[in-house]
Amino acid sequence: xxKIQISPSILSADFSQLGNEIKxxxxxxxxxxxxxxxxxxxxxxxxxxxxxIKALKKNSSIPFDVHLMISPVHKYIESYANAGADIITIHxxxxxxxxxxxxxxxxxxxxxxxxxxxxxxVEVIEEFLDQIDLILIMSVNPGFGGQKFMPEVLDKxxxxxxIRKNFKxxxxxxxxxxxxxxxxxxxxxxxxxxxxxxxxxxxxxxxxIKKNIDLLRSI
Length: 219
Ligand code: DX5
Ligand code: ZN
Hints:
Elements: E1 5-8, H1 18-27, E2 33-38, H2 50-57, E3 64-69, H3 77-83, E4 87-90, H4 98-107, E5 111-116, E6 134-138, H5 154-166, E7 172-176, H6 183-190, E8 194-197, H7 199-203, H8 209-217
Parallel strand pairs: 1-8, 2-3, 3-4, 4-5, 5-6, 6-7, 7-8
The chain binds D-xylitol-5-phosphate (DX5) and zinc ion (ZN).
């Protein structure tokens, strides 16, 4: 079994203190930083872009797990790579040619992540599985933090975990949206090895980040 990793989403952080918030996450034991990039078009919300990522990256020593909810995504991949993204995750619906977007991320020597919305089927990416480093299963419809976890997406996690074992593949399975101390255990049991969490990490136990990260990691 792969080691369980925690990727806190800075969407729930104090945006006036982002640099310090990232330090708090690092000190609390985060394995990477999940950055939600939204364009007000692919999803109905707007967040941050490359200049902010570049500034934050200077302040951090752990990988940046950049979740691009923007369309068309292809022409922006390079800017995010240059800004300091270590993992670049895109949605298949946001590009005309998924293979060429995968190849572009690889050429920039970044890890390739593909995200599946709750209604997107595993079949959409099946032929590319040997070229993908990470699959991000959305357990809410992307756009906002603090939404309710959709348990039905765990069927896709189980399916991908089975494929990973049967074909001896190495991709990570990450889950994003509405993760709490209970469903985290179900997700891990189903095959998830990276948990994204915003609300639970920043708001639970009076914002005790270390405690919340440890609790999410425990099985
Ligand atoms: C939703 C984002 C998530 C979200 C997670 O579109 O991709 O990363 O911020 O936040 P919580 O844990 O609050 O659901
Ligand atoms: Zn995300």
